[in-house]
Design a protein that fits this description.
This protein is mainly α and 166 residues long. It folds into two domains: 13-91, Rossmann fold; 103-163, Orthogonal Bundle (Arc Repressor Mutant, subunit A), CATH 1.10.10. The chain contains eight helices and three strands. It has a three-stranded parallel sheet with strand order 1-2-3, with helices on both faces. It is elongated, with a radius of gyration of 24 Å.
């Protein structure tokens, strides 16, 4: 058993040690308690070895000594124990921020991402500049980008577009 955050760095030293040990000995049973749900850590641990004999538990769930001892025995016997909150976090599908956009709005956003002005987009799509402005306004609203003095909403919309892998 190892904690994810161990000296000297107090980062992910314990997890890296567990994954390294399991790479050398895939049959080694490892239980890693953590203070927080961190899907990257859980995925790295579950991907180590053959995915069996591993446990990823949240520390607040190990308060019941009998239950914790049962979990350790189960993992040592070849089982896998993953905290329910970790499972929910791993299975949660990332929301596509562009899902709410209409096909035309996605088309307009793609052209904005290419650096085109509203006038250039209007000419390319054979619509009025006012129509493009309306689409851009809808995009900003649907992406939940309210007006702010310290941000450029158009740039933030393009970043959302790029992060969505478009």
């Amino acid at each position: 058993m190892t904690d994810i955050r161990m000296p000297p760095e107090h980062r992910d030293d314990g997890l890296r040690a567990a994954v390294t040990l399991r790479a050398e000995r895939p049959d080694l049973a490892v239980v890693v308690p953590s203070q927080h749900v961190q899907s990257g850590y859980a995925a790295a641990l579950l991907d180590s070895g053959d995915g069996r004999r591993v446990g990823y538990l949240l520390k607040d769930r190990v308060a019941d000594v009998a239950e914790f001892a049962d979990t350790l025995r189960r993992v040592a016997a070849g089982g896998t124990a993953v905290d329910p909150d970790v499972v929910r976090h791993l299975l949660r599908r990332p929301r596509d921020p562009l899902a709410a956009l209409s096909p035309r709005e996605r088309e307009v956003l793609a052209l904005v991402a290419e650096g085109h002005s509203n006038g250039a987009i209007a000419a390319r799509l054979h619509v009025t500049e006012a129509a493009v402005g309306k689409h851009v306004g809808n995009i900003l609203t649907k992406l939940d980008l309210p007006p702010a003095d310290d941000t450029n909403r158009r740039v933030l919309a393009v970043l959302a577009y790029l992060r969505a892998g478009r």
